[in-house]
Write a structure and sequence with these properties.
Elements: H1 3-11, H2 15-26, H3 30-43, E1 51-57, H4 63-76, E2 81-86, H5 94-103, H6 105-109, E3 113-116, H7 124-140, E4 145-151, H8 155-161, E5 166-171, H9 176-181, H10 184-189, E6 192-195, H11 203-218, E7 232-235, H12 244-261, H13 263-289, H14 293-306, H15 311-323, H16 327-338
Parallel strand pairs: 1-4, 1-5, 2-3, 2-4, 5-6, 6-7
Helix pairs in contact: 1-2, 1-3, 2-3, 2-7, 7-8, 14-15
Bound molecules: guanosine-5'-triphosphate (GTP) and magnesium ion.
Length: 342
C-alpha cells in the first residue's frame, strides 16, 4: 500500500480514501496497524481543525434523527460533516442498522457528509483507539464538524468525552424519573443538554423537563472550561428541525469562548497526553496477556499461592525476566516522589 498516495488523497478530502484509511485503523492485523500508525503520523501536521462533537443518548431518544437533521443543516451552510458511531457493546441488531440507514438517508447521500457506522468490535480499548484515530483522519480530510455518536451505556460516554471538544446529551421529555435515570457522571461531562421531541403533544412536557434539567445543572460544580450559562439545557425537535440553529449557535459560541480563553487547545493537549498514557498502559497489559508472560504468571501465581515465594519476589522475577523492568526501580521512584513532601 502506498501511504503517501493515501495521505495525499485524504488531505484532498476524498471520502473513499478516508473510508479506506478508517478500515485500516480498525484492523487488528499487525501490518495494518503499522501502516495506520505511519499514515496518522504523516497526516498529523495538517492545519485543518475540526470541531469535534460528542453526542450521547439512550436508545430511542432520537440520536439518528437528530444527526440527520443537524447534519443536513450544517451541510446546507456549506460545512463538511463526518459522523462516527461508537457502540462498544456491538449488541446492535440488524434492524437498528437498517433503521439508521433510512433515518440518515439524506445525509448519507450528501456529498459533504461522511457517515461511518461502528465496527463489530467489543473491546472498549480497541474501540477507543479506532475512534480516536478515525476522528484524526476525518480532521485531516478537512471536515469542519466531526460528530461522534455513542449509545448511552456507561463507559463509552466518558471515552468519547476524552476525544471531543464539546459533548451533547440528548434527552427525552419526561418527569423526575427521567432526571434520576440519567447518570450523574454523564451530566457532568455534558456541555449542552438537548431535550428532544419538543413537538406536538410532547412539547409542554419537553419544556418542563428542560427547566428541571436547567435547575439540576445549576447545582453542579462549576468547571473552569465553562463560560457563564454553561452547561445549558435547551429543547429541540429533530423531526421538525426546531432549535437546531440555536443549538449550533450555542456550540459555536462555547467553542469560540474556549478558544479565546485557551481552554480549547489546553484540553486537546491534555487529551493527547491522556491517550498516550492509556496506550502505554494498554501495551503493557497486552504483553502480560501474551505468551510466554501469561504462562509464567500462572506458574508464579501457583507458587505464590503455595507459599513457595512471596508476592513481591514473584512480581520482581516476572517483571525483570520478561519485561526487563526492575521492581526496585519503581519503589525508588515512588519514594523519590514523596520525599520532598516529608
Ligand atoms: N416526536 C418526535 N419523535 C422523534 C424525534 N426524534 C426522533 N423521534 C422518533 O423517535 C424514534 C427513535 O428515533 P431514533 O432517531 O432512531 O433514535 P436513536 O436514539 O437513534 O435510537 P437508537 O439508534 O436505537 O439508539 C423514532 O421513531 C423517531 O421518529 C422528535 O424530535 N420528535
Ligand atoms: Mg440510532
Amino acid at each position: 500500500m502506498d501511504i503517501d498516495d493515501l495521505a495525499t488523497r485524504i488531505a484532498a478530502g476524498e471520502r473513499r480514501a478516508l473510508a479506506r484509511a478508517i478500515t485500516l485503523v480498525e484492523s487488528g492485523r499487525a501490518d495494518h496497524r503499522e501502516t495506520a500508525t505511519a499514515l496518522l503520523e504523516r497526516l498529523k501536521d495538517r492545519p485543518a481543525q475540526a470541531l469535534r462533537v460528542g453526542l450521547s443518548g439512550t436508545p430511542g431518544v432520537g440520536k439518528s434523527t437528530f444527526i440527520e437533521a443537524f447534519g443536513l443543516m450544517l451541510t446546507g451552510q456549506g460545512l463538511r460533516v463526518a459522523v462516527l458511531a461508537v457502540d462498544p457493546s456491538s449488541a446492535r441488531s440488524g434492524g437498528s442498522i437498517l433503521g439508521d440507514k433510512t433515518r440518515m438517508e439524506h445525509l448519507s447521500r450528501d456529498p459533504n457528509a461522511f457517515i461511518r457506522p461502528s465496527p463489530a468490535q467489543s473491546q472498549l480499548g480497541g474501540v477507543a483507539r479506532r475512534t480516536r484515530e478515525a476522528i484524526d483522519l476525518c480532521e485531516a480530510a478537512g471536515f469542519d464538524v466531526v460528530l461522534v455518536e455513542t449509545v448511552g451505556v456507561g463507559q463509552s460516554e466518558t471515552m468519547v468525552a476524552e476525544m471531543t471538544d464539546l459533548f451533547l446529551l440528548l434527552l427525552a421529555p419526561g418527569g423526575g424519573d427521567e432526571l434520576q435515570g440519567v447518570k450523574r457522571g454523564i451530566m457532568e461531562i455534558a456541555d449542552i443538554l438537548l431535550i428532544n421531541k419538543a413537538d406536538g403533544a410532547l412539547k409542554t412536557t419537553a419544556t418542563r423537563t428542560c427547566a428541571d434539567y436547567a435547575g439540576a445543572l445549576r447545582l453542579l460544580r462549576k468547571r473552569v472550561q465553562d463560560p457563564d450559562g454553561f452547561p445549558k439545557a435547551m429543547t429541540v425537535s429533530a423531526v421538525e428541525g426546531a432549535g437546531l440553529e440555536t443549538a449550533w449557535a450555542e456550540m459555536q459560541s462555547l467553542a469560540e469562548w474556549r478558544r479565546t480563553e485557551g481552554h480549547f487547545d489546553a484540553r486537546r493537549a491534555d487529551q493527547a497526553r491522556f491517550w498516550f498514557e492509556a496506550e502505554v498502559r494498554e501495551g503493557l497489559l497486552a504483553r502480560l496477556k501474551r505468551e510466554p508472560v501469561r504462562g509464567a504468571m500462572t506458574a508464579l501465581g501457583r507458587q505464590v499461592a503455595e507459599g513457595a515465594i512471596t508476592p513481591t519476589a514473584a512480581a520482581a522475577e516476572l517483571l525483570g525476566e520478561y519485561l526487563q523492568l526492575d521492581l526496585a526501580d519503581r519503589t525508588t521512584d515512588q519514594s523519590r516522589q514523596s520525599a520532598p513532601k516529608a
